[in-house]
Amino acid sequence: MRLSKTFIPTLKEIPSDAVIPSHQLMLRAGLMRQLTAGVYAYLPLGYKAMLKAIQILREEMDAIGGQEFHLPALNPESLWIKTKRRHIPNLILSIKERDLVLAPTHEEVVGWIAAMHIQSYKDLPQIWYQIQTKFRNEPRPRSGVLRGRQFIMKDSYSLDASWEGLDERYEAHAEAYRRIFRRSGLDFFVVGASSGAMGGSGSQEFMVDSESGEDTVARCKQCSYAANLEVATSGLAGIGRVPENNPVKEFPTPNVRTIDELATFLKTTDERLAKSVVYRHADTPLLILLVGNDQLNESKLSAALGEGAVRPIDAGELKSLTGADGGSIGPIGLKGFRIIADKRLENANGLISGANRNDHHVRNIDLQRDVHLDGYHDLRTVLPGEPCPTCGAPLIVANAIEIGHIFKLGTKYSEALNATFLDESGQSQPIVMGSYGIGVERIIACHIEQSHDEHGIIWNKVLAPFAVHIVAASMNNKETVLVANQTYRALSDAGIEVLFDDRASVTAGFKFKDADLLGMPLQVIVGERGLKEKKIEIKRRATGERTMVPADGVVNAVRSMLSE
Questions:
Q1: Distance from C-alpha of 89 to C-alpha of 86, rounded to nearest angstrom
Q2: Going from the N-terminus, what domains does the chain have, and what CATH number goes with each?
Protein backbone atom coordinates (compact mmCIF):
# COMPACT_ATOMS: atom_id res chain seq x y z
CA MET A 1 0.00 0.00 0.00
CA ARG A 2 1.36 3.39 -1.03
CA LEU A 3 1.08 5.94 1.75
CA SER A 4 0.52 8.71 -0.81
CA LYS A 5 -2.77 7.00 -1.74
CA THR A 6 -3.75 5.75 1.71
CA PHE A 7 -5.93 7.54 4.25
CA ILE A 8 -3.82 7.60 7.42
CA PRO A 9 -4.39 11.01 9.08
CA THR A 10 -1.66 11.21 11.74
CA LEU A 11 -1.58 13.90 14.43
CA LYS A 12 1.49 15.67 15.80
CA GLU A 13 -0.11 16.62 19.11
CA ILE A 14 -1.85 14.48 21.72
CA PRO A 15 -5.60 15.23 21.75
CA SER A 16 -6.52 17.02 24.97
CA ASP A 17 -9.28 14.57 25.92
CA ALA A 18 -7.11 11.45 25.48
CA VAL A 19 -5.57 10.40 28.80
CA ILE A 20 -4.34 6.82 28.47
CA PRO A 21 -1.58 5.78 26.02
CA SER A 22 -3.72 3.51 23.83
CA HIS A 23 -6.33 6.22 23.32
CA GLN A 24 -3.69 8.83 22.53
CA LEU A 25 -1.83 6.63 20.06
CA MET A 26 -4.89 5.21 18.33
CA LEU A 27 -5.91 8.79 17.57
CA ARG A 28 -2.44 10.10 16.73
CA ALA A 29 -1.62 7.16 14.44
CA GLY A 30 -4.86 7.58 12.52
CA LEU A 31 -6.40 4.28 13.58
CA MET A 32 -9.72 5.87 14.53
CA ARG A 33 -11.64 9.08 15.13
CA GLN A 34 -14.27 9.87 17.75
CA LEU A 35 -17.72 10.53 16.32
CA THR A 36 -19.35 11.28 19.67
CA ALA A 37 -18.77 10.28 23.29
CA GLY A 38 -18.01 6.56 23.40
CA VAL A 39 -18.45 6.03 19.64
CA TYR A 40 -15.50 5.67 17.25
CA ALA A 41 -15.07 5.41 13.49
CA TYR A 42 -12.32 2.96 12.52
CA LEU A 43 -10.12 4.20 9.70
CA PRO A 44 -8.26 1.88 7.29
CA LEU A 45 -5.19 1.29 9.49
CA GLY A 46 -7.23 0.63 12.62
CA TYR A 47 -9.69 -1.64 10.85
CA LYS A 48 -6.85 -3.61 9.27
CA ALA A 49 -5.43 -4.32 12.74
CA MET A 50 -8.92 -5.22 13.94
CA LEU A 51 -9.29 -7.76 11.14
CA LYS A 52 -6.03 -9.40 12.24
CA ALA A 53 -7.47 -9.88 15.74
CA ILE A 54 -10.78 -11.11 14.33
CA GLN A 55 -9.00 -13.74 12.24
CA ILE A 56 -7.33 -15.13 15.38
CA LEU A 57 -10.71 -15.21 17.12
CA ARG A 58 -12.37 -17.08 14.24
CA GLU A 59 -9.60 -19.65 14.02
CA GLU A 60 -9.66 -20.44 17.72
CA MET A 61 -13.47 -20.52 17.99
CA ASP A 62 -13.70 -22.82 14.98
CA ALA A 63 -11.06 -25.05 16.57
CA ILE A 64 -13.36 -25.82 19.54
CA GLY A 65 -16.36 -26.52 17.32
CA GLY A 66 -17.88 -23.06 17.23
CA GLN A 67 -20.43 -22.21 14.53
CA GLU A 68 -20.53 -18.57 13.46
CA PHE A 69 -23.85 -16.72 13.59
CA HIS A 70 -24.80 -13.12 12.90
CA LEU A 71 -27.55 -12.08 15.29
CA PRO A 72 -29.59 -8.86 15.09
CA ALA A 73 -28.53 -5.88 17.16
CA LEU A 74 -32.17 -4.82 17.45
CA ASN A 75 -34.03 -7.02 19.93
CA PRO A 76 -37.67 -6.99 21.02
CA GLU A 77 -37.91 -5.54 24.49
CA SER A 78 -40.09 -8.47 25.55
CA LEU A 79 -37.15 -10.90 25.49
CA TRP A 80 -35.23 -8.78 27.97
CA ILE A 81 -38.27 -8.40 30.20
CA LYS A 82 -38.56 -12.20 30.38
CA THR A 83 -34.99 -12.52 31.64
CA LYS A 84 -35.40 -9.58 34.05
CA ARG A 85 -32.52 -7.61 32.50
CA ARG A 86 -34.51 -4.86 30.78
CA HIS A 87 -34.17 -2.35 33.60
CA ILE A 88 -30.64 -3.08 34.85
CA PRO A 89 -29.03 0.39 35.18
CA ASN A 90 -26.54 1.54 32.52
CA LEU A 91 -26.90 -1.59 30.39
CA ILE A 92 -29.42 -1.23 27.58
CA LEU A 93 -30.02 1.47 24.97
CA SER A 94 -33.65 1.52 23.84
CA ILE A 95 -35.39 2.81 20.71
CA LYS A 96 -37.85 5.66 21.23
CA GLU A 97 -41.42 4.94 20.07
CA ARG A 98 -40.58 1.27 19.48
CA ASP A 99 -40.54 -1.71 21.84
CA LEU A 100 -36.97 -2.45 20.77
CA VAL A 101 -33.57 -2.37 22.45
CA LEU A 102 -30.00 -2.36 21.16
CA ALA A 103 -28.44 -5.53 22.49
CA PRO A 104 -25.29 -5.31 24.65
CA THR A 105 -25.08 -9.13 24.49
CA HIS A 106 -27.18 -11.95 23.03
CA GLU A 107 -28.13 -14.53 25.67
CA GLU A 108 -31.78 -13.68 25.08
CA VAL A 109 -31.66 -14.19 21.31
CA VAL A 110 -29.64 -17.41 21.61
CA GLY A 111 -32.18 -18.71 24.14
CA TRP A 112 -35.02 -17.77 21.79
CA ILE A 113 -33.44 -19.67 18.87
CA ALA A 114 -32.67 -22.65 21.10
CA ALA A 115 -36.27 -22.73 22.38
CA MET A 116 -37.52 -23.08 18.81
CA HIS A 117 -35.05 -25.63 17.49
CA ILE A 118 -33.35 -27.65 20.24
CA GLN A 119 -35.70 -30.57 20.89
CA SER A 120 -33.61 -33.46 22.19
CA TYR A 121 -30.40 -34.27 24.04
CA LYS A 122 -29.23 -35.53 20.64
CA ASP A 123 -29.19 -31.87 19.47
CA LEU A 124 -26.62 -31.01 22.15
CA PRO A 125 -23.95 -29.80 22.76
CA GLN A 126 -23.73 -26.65 20.64
CA ILE A 127 -21.30 -23.72 20.52
CA TRP A 128 -22.60 -20.66 18.68
CA TYR A 129 -20.53 -17.51 18.23
CA GLN A 130 -20.53 -14.20 16.44
CA ILE A 131 -18.28 -11.17 15.97
CA GLN A 132 -20.60 -8.22 15.96
CA THR A 133 -21.19 -4.61 17.01
CA LYS A 134 -22.67 -4.22 20.47
CA PHE A 135 -24.20 -1.26 22.29
CA ARG A 136 -24.16 -0.30 25.95
CA ASN A 137 -25.85 2.51 27.83
CA GLU A 138 -22.54 3.70 29.27
CA PRO A 139 -23.19 6.86 31.35
CA ARG A 140 -19.56 8.09 31.32
CA PRO A 141 -17.63 6.89 28.26
CA ARG A 142 -13.87 7.23 28.80
CA SER A 143 -10.47 5.65 28.19
CA GLY A 144 -10.98 5.49 24.45
CA VAL A 145 -12.30 2.14 23.25
CA LEU A 146 -11.98 0.60 26.73
CA ARG A 147 -15.23 2.15 27.93
CA GLY A 148 -17.49 2.95 25.00
CA ARG A 149 -21.15 2.92 24.01
CA GLN A 150 -20.55 1.01 20.79
CA PHE A 151 -17.99 -1.76 20.47
CA ILE A 152 -17.11 -4.91 18.54
CA MET A 153 -17.32 -8.12 20.49
CA LYS A 154 -16.76 -11.81 19.97
CA ASP A 155 -19.54 -13.42 21.98
CA SER A 156 -20.15 -17.14 22.10
CA TYR A 157 -22.69 -19.35 23.81
CA SER A 158 -22.59 -23.00 24.78
CA LEU A 159 -25.69 -25.16 25.05
CA ASP A 160 -25.47 -28.42 26.99
CA ALA A 161 -27.64 -31.17 28.38
CA SER A 162 -25.82 -31.24 31.73
CA TRP A 163 -23.66 -29.25 34.10
CA GLU A 164 -20.80 -31.63 33.35
CA GLY A 165 -21.14 -30.70 29.68
CA LEU A 166 -21.11 -27.01 30.59
CA ASP A 167 -17.88 -27.58 32.53
CA GLU A 168 -16.30 -29.10 29.40
CA ARG A 169 -17.39 -26.23 27.15
CA TYR A 170 -16.31 -23.69 29.77
CA GLU A 171 -12.83 -25.19 29.98
CA ALA A 172 -12.61 -25.40 26.18
CA HIS A 173 -13.35 -21.68 25.99
CA ALA A 174 -10.86 -20.91 28.76
CA GLU A 175 -8.11 -22.70 26.82
CA ALA A 176 -9.16 -21.07 23.54
CA TYR A 177 -8.97 -17.65 25.22
CA ARG A 178 -5.49 -18.40 26.50
CA ARG A 179 -4.41 -19.30 22.96
CA ILE A 180 -6.05 -16.16 21.54
CA PHE A 181 -4.28 -13.83 23.96
CA ARG A 182 -0.94 -15.61 23.63
CA ARG A 183 -1.16 -15.40 19.84
CA SER A 184 -2.05 -11.70 20.17
CA GLY A 185 1.14 -11.16 22.17
CA LEU A 186 -0.61 -10.04 25.34
CA ASP A 187 0.80 -10.50 28.83
CA PHE A 188 -2.36 -11.57 30.66
CA PHE A 189 -3.60 -13.37 33.76
CA VAL A 190 -6.88 -14.97 34.84
CA VAL A 191 -8.94 -13.99 37.89
CA GLY A 192 -12.07 -15.19 39.60
CA ALA A 193 -14.87 -12.70 38.99
CA SER A 194 -18.42 -11.66 39.79
CA SER A 195 -21.14 -12.71 37.36
CA GLY A 196 -22.90 -9.39 37.90
CA ALA A 197 -25.87 -8.71 35.64
CA MET A 198 -25.17 -11.90 33.67
CA GLY A 199 -26.03 -14.15 36.60
CA GLY A 200 -25.00 -17.78 36.81
CA SER A 201 -22.85 -19.91 39.06
CA GLY A 202 -19.32 -18.77 38.28
CA SER A 203 -17.11 -16.69 36.04
CA GLN A 204 -13.52 -15.78 35.27
CA GLU A 205 -11.97 -12.70 33.72
CA PHE A 206 -8.86 -12.46 31.55
CA MET A 207 -6.91 -9.36 32.55
CA VAL A 208 -3.85 -7.34 31.62
CA ASP A 209 -1.99 -5.24 34.19
CA SER A 210 -2.44 -1.53 33.53
CA GLU A 211 -2.48 1.64 35.58
CA SER A 212 -5.16 2.76 33.12
CA GLY A 213 -7.41 -0.17 34.00
CA GLU A 214 -10.86 0.39 35.42
CA ASP A 215 -11.00 -2.99 37.15
CA THR A 216 -9.16 -3.66 40.39
CA VAL A 217 -7.72 -7.07 41.17
CA ALA A 218 -6.09 -8.74 44.15
CA ARG A 219 -3.16 -11.01 43.26
CA CYS A 220 -0.61 -13.12 45.05
CA LYS A 221 2.93 -13.11 43.66
CA GLN A 222 3.84 -16.28 45.56
CA CYS A 223 1.06 -18.49 44.17
CA SER A 224 -1.58 -18.44 41.46
CA TYR A 225 -4.34 -16.76 43.47
CA ALA A 226 -5.97 -13.83 41.64
CA ALA A 227 -9.46 -12.37 41.80
CA ASN A 228 -11.36 -9.28 40.83
CA LEU A 229 -11.73 -7.10 43.91
CA GLU A 230 -15.50 -7.57 43.53
CA VAL A 231 -15.09 -11.17 44.74
CA ALA A 232 -11.56 -11.29 46.21
CA THR A 233 -11.04 -12.82 49.63
CA SER A 234 -8.06 -12.86 51.97
CA GLY A 235 -6.76 -14.93 54.82
CA LEU A 236 -7.44 -12.16 57.35
CA ALA A 237 -8.75 -13.82 60.50
CA GLY A 238 -12.00 -13.08 62.24
CA ILE A 239 -11.87 -11.10 65.47
CA GLY A 240 -13.16 -14.02 67.56
CA ARG A 241 -14.40 -13.83 71.14
CA VAL A 242 -13.00 -12.23 74.27
CA PRO A 243 -13.03 -13.95 77.72
CA GLU A 244 -15.24 -11.39 79.46
CA ASN A 245 -18.88 -11.46 78.36
CA ASN A 246 -20.71 -8.77 80.31
CA PRO A 247 -24.28 -7.61 79.67
CA VAL A 248 -24.87 -4.89 77.08
CA LYS A 249 -24.58 -1.38 78.43
CA GLU A 250 -25.43 1.93 76.83
CA PHE A 251 -23.06 4.87 77.34
CA PRO A 252 -22.87 8.48 76.09
CA THR A 253 -20.62 9.42 73.16
CA PRO A 254 -21.18 13.14 72.59
CA ASN A 255 -20.54 14.37 69.03
CA VAL A 256 -19.14 10.99 67.93
CA ARG A 257 -20.24 10.26 64.35
CA THR A 258 -17.61 7.97 62.78
CA ILE A 259 -15.62 4.84 63.62
CA ASP A 260 -12.40 6.87 63.80
CA GLU A 261 -14.00 9.36 66.20
CA LEU A 262 -15.33 6.50 68.32
CA ALA A 263 -11.90 4.81 68.45
CA THR A 264 -10.31 8.11 69.50
CA PHE A 265 -13.03 8.75 72.11
CA LEU A 266 -12.56 5.27 73.63
CA LYS A 267 -8.77 5.30 73.18
CA THR A 268 -8.90 1.90 71.49
CA THR A 269 -8.38 0.25 68.11
CA ASP A 270 -11.26 -0.30 65.72
CA GLU A 271 -11.17 -4.12 65.99
CA ARG A 272 -14.11 -4.47 68.39
CA LEU A 273 -16.08 -1.59 66.95
CA ALA A 274 -18.97 -2.94 64.87
CA LYS A 275 -19.74 -0.52 62.06
CA SER A 276 -23.36 -0.39 60.89
CA VAL A 277 -24.15 0.23 57.22
CA VAL A 278 -27.77 0.59 56.14
CA TYR A 279 -29.27 -0.46 52.80
CA ARG A 280 -32.63 -1.41 51.40
CA HIS A 281 -33.05 -4.75 49.65
CA ALA A 282 -36.31 -5.54 47.83
CA ASP A 283 -38.02 -2.84 49.94
CA THR A 284 -36.79 -4.33 53.24
CA PRO A 285 -34.45 -2.21 55.41
CA LEU A 286 -31.13 -3.97 55.92
CA LEU A 287 -28.44 -3.44 58.57
CA ILE A 288 -24.97 -4.71 57.67
CA LEU A 289 -22.35 -5.13 60.41
CA LEU A 290 -18.64 -4.85 59.60
CA VAL A 291 -15.46 -4.70 61.65
CA GLY A 292 -14.32 -1.13 62.33
CA ASN A 293 -12.97 0.47 59.18
CA ASP A 294 -13.58 -2.51 56.87
CA GLN A 295 -15.27 -1.26 53.72
CA LEU A 296 -18.46 -2.81 52.39
CA ASN A 297 -18.10 -4.49 48.98
CA GLU A 298 -21.38 -3.85 47.14
CA SER A 299 -20.77 -6.61 44.59
CA LYS A 300 -20.39 -9.15 47.39
CA LEU A 301 -23.48 -7.74 49.07
CA SER A 302 -25.58 -8.13 45.91
CA ALA A 303 -24.32 -11.69 45.43
CA ALA A 304 -25.13 -12.58 49.04
CA LEU A 305 -28.64 -11.14 48.86
CA GLY A 306 -29.64 -12.61 45.50
CA GLU A 307 -32.40 -11.14 43.36
CA GLY A 308 -33.90 -7.77 44.19
CA ALA A 309 -32.74 -4.17 43.96
CA VAL A 310 -30.13 -3.08 46.50
CA ARG A 311 -29.55 0.58 47.38
CA PRO A 312 -28.17 2.61 50.28
CA ILE A 313 -30.66 4.23 52.62
CA ASP A 314 -30.14 7.98 52.70
CA ALA A 315 -29.84 10.07 55.85
CA GLY A 316 -33.41 11.35 55.78
CA GLU A 317 -34.93 7.92 55.30
CA LEU A 318 -32.73 6.48 58.05
CA LYS A 319 -33.78 9.20 60.49
CA SER A 320 -37.45 8.51 59.79
CA LEU A 321 -36.95 4.75 60.30
CA THR A 322 -34.82 4.87 63.46
CA GLY A 323 -34.91 8.39 64.85
CA ALA A 324 -31.11 8.48 64.79
CA ASP A 325 -28.34 9.57 62.44
CA GLY A 326 -26.01 7.15 60.65
CA GLY A 327 -23.16 7.33 63.16
CA SER A 328 -25.42 6.17 65.98
CA ILE A 329 -27.08 3.12 64.40
CA GLY A 330 -26.58 -0.39 65.78
CA PRO A 331 -28.21 -3.83 66.04
CA ILE A 332 -29.45 -3.64 69.66
CA GLY A 333 -33.16 -2.85 69.84
CA LEU A 334 -33.39 -2.08 66.12
CA LYS A 335 -36.92 -2.76 64.84
CA GLY A 336 -38.02 -3.61 61.30
CA PHE A 337 -34.54 -4.32 59.89
CA ARG A 338 -33.06 -7.52 58.54
CA ILE A 339 -29.53 -7.83 60.01
CA ILE A 340 -26.54 -9.57 58.43
CA ALA A 341 -22.84 -9.45 59.31
CA ASP A 342 -19.45 -9.91 57.71
CA LYS A 343 -17.71 -13.22 58.39
CA ARG A 344 -14.94 -11.52 60.37
CA LEU A 345 -17.58 -10.89 63.04
CA GLU A 346 -18.79 -14.49 63.17
CA ASN A 347 -19.89 -15.33 66.77
CA ALA A 348 -17.97 -12.30 68.08
CA ASN A 349 -18.64 -10.70 71.46
CA GLY A 350 -17.40 -7.66 73.35
CA LEU A 351 -18.51 -5.41 70.48
CA ILE A 352 -19.38 -1.73 70.53
CA SER A 353 -21.97 -0.25 68.18
CA GLY A 354 -24.54 2.53 67.96
CA ALA A 355 -27.48 2.67 70.38
CA ASN A 356 -30.01 3.93 67.80
CA ARG A 357 -30.14 7.32 69.43
CA ASN A 358 -27.76 10.14 68.73
CA ASP A 359 -24.65 10.59 70.89
CA HIS A 360 -24.98 7.13 72.46
CA HIS A 361 -23.40 3.72 71.86
CA VAL A 362 -23.72 0.23 73.33
CA ARG A 363 -20.84 -1.94 74.58
CA ASN A 364 -20.50 -5.67 75.38
CA ILE A 365 -22.59 -6.81 72.40
CA ASP A 366 -22.52 -10.59 71.88
CA LEU A 367 -23.82 -11.41 68.40
CA GLN A 368 -24.81 -14.92 69.50
CA ARG A 369 -26.66 -13.70 72.59
CA ASP A 370 -27.99 -10.25 71.76
CA VAL A 371 -28.67 -10.03 68.02
CA HIS A 372 -31.00 -11.98 65.74
CA LEU A 373 -28.73 -12.29 62.72
CA ASP A 374 -29.87 -13.50 59.31
CA GLY A 375 -26.46 -14.92 58.47
CA TYR A 376 -22.76 -14.21 58.05
CA HIS A 377 -21.32 -13.46 54.59
CA ASP A 378 -18.03 -12.33 53.09
CA LEU A 379 -18.95 -8.67 52.60
CA ARG A 380 -15.73 -6.69 52.97
CA THR A 381 -13.27 -5.33 50.42
CA VAL A 382 -9.79 -6.86 50.52
CA LEU A 383 -6.89 -4.46 51.18
CA PRO A 384 -3.26 -4.57 49.95
CA GLY A 385 -0.94 -6.53 52.21
CA GLU A 386 -3.58 -8.85 53.63
CA PRO A 387 -2.59 -12.53 53.59
CA CYS A 388 -3.34 -14.59 50.50
CA PRO A 389 -6.20 -17.04 51.23
CA THR A 390 -4.21 -19.81 49.51
CA CYS A 391 -0.61 -19.44 50.72
CA GLY A 392 -0.59 -16.58 53.24
CA ALA A 393 1.80 -14.29 51.32
CA PRO A 394 0.87 -10.57 51.14
CA LEU A 395 -1.66 -9.70 48.45
CA ILE A 396 -1.12 -6.86 46.01
CA VAL A 397 -4.07 -4.82 44.76
CA ALA A 398 -3.69 -3.16 41.37
CA ASN A 399 -5.61 -1.85 38.37
CA ALA A 400 -6.16 -4.03 35.33
CA ILE A 401 -8.03 -4.06 32.02
CA GLU A 402 -10.51 -6.84 31.30
CA ILE A 403 -10.01 -8.37 27.84
CA GLY A 404 -12.26 -11.39 28.16
CA HIS A 405 -14.93 -12.82 30.45
CA ILE A 406 -16.42 -16.32 30.64
CA PHE A 407 -19.59 -17.29 32.53
CA LYS A 408 -21.35 -20.45 33.64
CA LEU A 409 -24.92 -19.26 33.17
CA GLY A 410 -26.61 -22.53 34.06
CA THR A 411 -30.36 -22.55 33.44
CA LYS A 412 -31.19 -18.92 34.27
CA TYR A 413 -31.91 -17.91 30.68
CA SER A 414 -33.24 -21.22 29.39
CA GLU A 415 -35.82 -21.34 32.17
CA ALA A 416 -36.90 -17.75 31.54
CA LEU A 417 -37.19 -18.36 27.78
CA ASN A 418 -38.56 -21.92 27.99
CA ALA A 419 -35.55 -23.33 26.13
CA THR A 420 -35.87 -27.02 26.99
CA PHE A 421 -35.00 -30.43 25.57
CA LEU A 422 -36.07 -34.02 26.16
CA ASP A 423 -33.45 -36.06 28.00
CA GLU A 424 -32.73 -39.77 27.46
CA SER A 425 -35.70 -40.75 29.62
CA GLY A 426 -38.07 -38.43 27.76
CA GLN A 427 -38.23 -35.82 30.53
CA SER A 428 -38.19 -32.11 29.71
CA GLN A 429 -35.08 -30.32 31.02
CA PRO A 430 -33.79 -26.73 30.73
CA ILE A 431 -30.73 -26.28 28.52
CA VAL A 432 -27.56 -25.57 30.51
CA MET A 433 -25.89 -22.48 29.06
CA GLY A 434 -22.53 -20.72 29.12
CA SER A 435 -21.59 -17.29 27.79
CA TYR A 436 -18.15 -16.09 26.70
CA GLY A 437 -17.02 -12.65 25.52
CA ILE A 438 -13.94 -10.88 24.17
CA GLY A 439 -13.78 -7.19 23.29
CA VAL A 440 -12.03 -7.00 19.91
CA GLU A 441 -10.95 -3.38 20.30
CA ARG A 442 -9.62 -4.24 23.74
CA ILE A 443 -7.16 -6.69 22.19
CA ILE A 444 -5.81 -3.84 20.04
CA ALA A 445 -5.87 -1.24 22.83
CA CYS A 446 -4.23 -3.56 25.37
CA HIS A 447 -1.50 -4.51 22.92
CA ILE A 448 -0.76 -0.79 22.48
CA GLU A 449 -0.90 -0.22 26.26
CA GLN A 450 1.73 -2.94 26.69
CA SER A 451 3.79 -2.15 23.59
CA HIS A 452 4.58 1.50 22.96
CA ASP A 453 7.25 4.09 23.69
CA GLU A 454 7.53 7.87 23.60
CA HIS A 455 7.62 7.78 19.80
CA GLY A 456 4.54 5.69 19.11
CA ILE A 457 3.09 2.22 18.76
CA ILE A 458 5.29 -0.89 18.65
CA TRP A 459 3.21 -3.50 16.80
CA ASN A 460 3.97 -7.19 17.01
CA LYS A 461 3.97 -9.07 13.71
CA VAL A 462 0.61 -10.75 14.45
CA LEU A 463 -1.56 -7.64 14.90
CA ALA A 464 0.45 -5.14 12.85
CA PRO A 465 -1.57 -3.68 9.97
CA PHE A 466 1.58 -4.07 7.85
CA ALA A 467 4.71 -6.11 8.51
CA VAL A 468 7.05 -3.63 6.80
CA HIS A 469 7.12 0.14 6.45
CA ILE A 470 9.33 1.30 3.56
CA VAL A 471 10.64 4.84 3.89
CA ALA A 472 11.96 6.44 0.73
CA ALA A 473 14.05 9.18 2.30
CA SER A 474 13.84 11.45 -0.75
CA MET A 475 11.44 11.16 -3.66
CA ASN A 476 13.56 13.75 -5.49
CA ASN A 477 16.47 11.34 -5.97
CA LYS A 478 15.95 9.08 -8.99
CA GLU A 479 17.97 6.15 -7.66
CA THR A 480 16.16 6.28 -4.32
CA VAL A 481 12.79 6.26 -6.09
CA LEU A 482 13.83 3.41 -8.39
CA VAL A 483 15.21 1.16 -5.63
CA ALA A 484 12.35 1.96 -3.22
CA ASN A 485 9.80 0.98 -5.88
CA GLN A 486 11.72 -2.19 -6.72
CA THR A 487 11.89 -3.09 -3.03
CA TYR A 488 8.17 -2.43 -2.61
CA ARG A 489 7.29 -4.70 -5.53
CA ALA A 490 9.70 -7.44 -4.43
CA LEU A 491 8.35 -7.55 -0.87
CA SER A 492 4.74 -7.40 -2.06
CA ASP A 493 5.34 -10.19 -4.59
CA ALA A 494 6.80 -12.27 -1.76
CA GLY A 495 3.46 -12.02 0.06
CA ILE A 496 4.67 -9.57 2.69
CA GLU A 497 2.28 -6.79 3.69
CA VAL A 498 4.03 -3.48 3.00
CA LEU A 499 3.24 0.16 3.65
CA PHE A 500 5.37 2.30 1.31
CA ASP A 501 5.91 5.94 2.30
CA ASP A 502 6.30 7.39 -1.18
CA ARG A 503 5.14 10.89 -0.26
CA ALA A 504 7.08 13.59 -2.08
CA SER A 505 5.54 16.46 -0.12
CA VAL A 506 7.09 15.73 3.31
CA THR A 507 10.65 15.68 4.62
CA ALA A 508 12.63 12.56 5.50
CA GLY A 509 12.53 13.55 9.17
CA PHE A 510 8.74 13.74 9.09
CA LYS A 511 8.59 10.32 7.42
CA PHE A 512 10.82 8.77 10.09
CA LYS A 513 8.64 10.23 12.86
CA ASP A 514 5.51 8.87 11.19
CA ALA A 515 7.17 5.47 10.78
CA ASP A 516 7.90 5.31 14.52
CA LEU A 517 4.41 6.58 15.36
CA LEU A 518 2.69 3.98 13.16
CA GLY A 519 4.98 1.34 14.61
CA MET A 520 5.20 -1.47 12.01
CA PRO A 521 7.61 -4.23 13.12
CA LEU A 522 10.25 -3.50 10.46
CA GLN A 523 11.25 -0.25 8.76
CA VAL A 524 13.07 -0.57 5.43
CA ILE A 525 14.88 2.72 4.80
CA VAL A 526 16.02 3.54 1.28
CA GLY A 527 18.39 6.52 1.26
CA GLU A 528 21.24 8.00 -0.77
CA ARG A 529 23.91 7.20 1.81
CA GLY A 530 23.16 3.48 1.84
CA LEU A 531 22.69 3.25 -1.91
CA LYS A 532 26.23 4.49 -2.45
CA GLU A 533 27.22 1.05 -1.16
CA LYS A 534 24.17 -0.64 -2.81
CA LYS A 535 22.70 -1.26 0.63
CA ILE A 536 19.38 -0.68 2.36
CA GLU A 537 18.85 -0.20 6.09
CA ILE A 538 16.41 -2.31 8.09
CA LYS A 539 15.33 -1.02 11.51
CA ARG A 540 13.56 -3.14 14.09
CA ARG A 541 10.89 -0.92 15.64
CA ALA A 542 10.85 -2.75 18.97
CA THR A 543 14.58 -2.44 19.73
CA GLY A 544 15.80 0.28 17.38
CA GLU A 545 18.45 -2.15 16.09
CA ARG A 546 19.60 -1.22 12.57
CA THR A 547 21.05 -3.60 9.97
CA MET A 548 22.50 -2.78 6.55
CA VAL A 549 21.72 -5.41 3.90
CA PRO A 550 22.43 -5.61 0.16
CA ALA A 551 19.62 -4.06 -1.87
CA ASP A 552 19.00 -7.35 -3.64
CA GLY A 553 18.87 -9.25 -0.34
CA VAL A 554 16.09 -7.30 1.36
CA VAL A 555 13.38 -9.92 0.84
CA ASN A 556 15.40 -12.71 2.43
CA ALA A 557 16.52 -10.46 5.28
CA VAL A 558 12.94 -9.36 5.99
CA ARG A 559 11.64 -12.93 5.85
CA SER A 560 14.33 -14.02 8.27
CA MET A 561 13.55 -11.24 10.76
CA LEU A 562 9.78 -11.83 10.58
CA SER A 563 10.26 -15.55 11.20
CA GLU A 564 12.11 -15.00 14.48
A1: 9
A2: 47-214+396-444 (3.30.930.10), 249-377 (3.90.960.10), 466-562 (3.40.50.800)
